[in-house]
Amino acid sequence: MKIYMSGELVDEQDAKVSVFDHGLLYGDGVFEGIRAYNGRVYLLDEHIERLYDSAKAIALEIPMSQEEMIRATVETCKANDIEDGYIRLIVTRGKGTLGLNPYLCKRAEVIIIAAVIQLYPQELYDTGLKIITAGSVRNHVEAVNPRIKSLNYLNNIMAKIEAINSGCMECLLLNPQGYVAEASGDNVFSVRKGVLTTPPSWCGSLEGITRNKVMELAAAAGYTVKEDVLTRYDLYTADEVFLTGTAAEIISVINIDRRIIGDGTPGAITMELSRIYAEAARSEGTPIA
Ligand code: PXG
């Protein structure tokens, strides 16, 4: 596998970061996870823009332009013969000292990995997910703002540990005020009487690229789509609940905290949106070849 690192493509065994990299020492950096379908990188411009916004928010200067980053991403896919794959873009603060001071890190490290994704088993999409609410709440917006896709995912990992320990694959995180934020690696939607609702990102979630695309596709399919504050009550009593994310795409939630959602099977609107999303993913994107 060829990895893009420090401006060039190198063999996987030569792609190494310093033990003094602040990405490792402090989780000081940002990242993106992007999918390629059918020889095209899906929603590439949107992911690159979010990467640069995340970097801006943590005062991290990426030593290349957005256009150069787009080109490097496509080149890395090409070098690895990617048709359908998963791309990880990582920008760390770079090599510094053992102290916190990020200004002693001379140059940010840019890493691009273009690999094949480990898909969730099809069975999960057919039957839907059972989830619990994690006791760990999402970061306060004035701690590490959840809109920043930072390398510091401990908040999400702590929640994921609770989910797995309870026999679930995913969990719901609330914000510090008790409103629904998102799942540990996905955004959340409710469907009630044909109306789709997802929390606004100021409620404490990542502004998901898949979420935004699903909102656009659902509106084009004739559904009313709202951003609104949600409580667990709204999800427990919804007709349908689903999660969205680059890796998961659209996946139904059929049980939350032992409350059966709807009739306990993936809902019709969730399934329709999954089909529409898959169709868009197959036919749009930045060509690799
Ligand atoms: N919320 C969080 C906290 C995320 O990390 C999403 C929502 C969905 O956003 P996009 O833009 O992908 O629609 C994410 C992204 C994993 C994994 O292995 C998931 C993400 C990142 C890294 C790994 O499940 N999710």
Q: How would you portray this structure in words?
A:
It contains eight helices and 16 strands. The protein has two domains: 2-115, Aminotransferase class 4, branched-chain amino acid transferase, N-terminal domain (D-amino Acid Aminotransferase, Chain A, domain 1), CATH 3.30.470; 122-281, D-amino Acid Aminotransferase, Chain A, domain 2 (Alpha-Beta Barrel), CATH 3.20.10. The protein has 289 residues and is of the alpha+beta class. Helix content is 29%, strand content 28%. It binds 3-[O-phosphonopyridoxyl]--amino-benzoic acid (PXG). 3-[O-phosphonopyridoxyl]--amino-benzoic acid binds at residues 33, 156, 182, 185-187, 205-206, 208-211, 244-247. 3-[O-phosphonopyridoxyl]--amino-benzoic acid binds next to helix 6 and strand 13.
Continuous helix count: 8
The chain-level mean pLDDT equals 97
What would the CATH topology of the largest domain be?
A: D-amino Acid Aminotransferase, Chain A, domain 2
| E-strand count | 16
Q: β content, as a range? A: 25-35%
Give the termini distance in whole angstroms. Answer: 18 Å
The helicity comes to 25-40%
**Which radius of gyration do the C-alpha atoms yield?**
19 Å
Bound molecules: 3-[O-phosphonopyridoxyl]--amino-benzoic acid
CATH superfamily of the largest domain: D-amino Acid Aminotransferase, subunit A, domain 2
What is the correct CATH architecture of the largest domain? Alpha-Beta Barrel
Instruction: Please state the structural category.
Output: alpha+beta
> How many distinct domains?
2
- N-to-C order of helices and strands: EEHEEHHEEHEHEEEEHEHEEEHE
The global form is: globular
Largest sheet: 9 strands, mixed
- Unreliable spans are none
CATH class of the largest domain: Alpha Beta
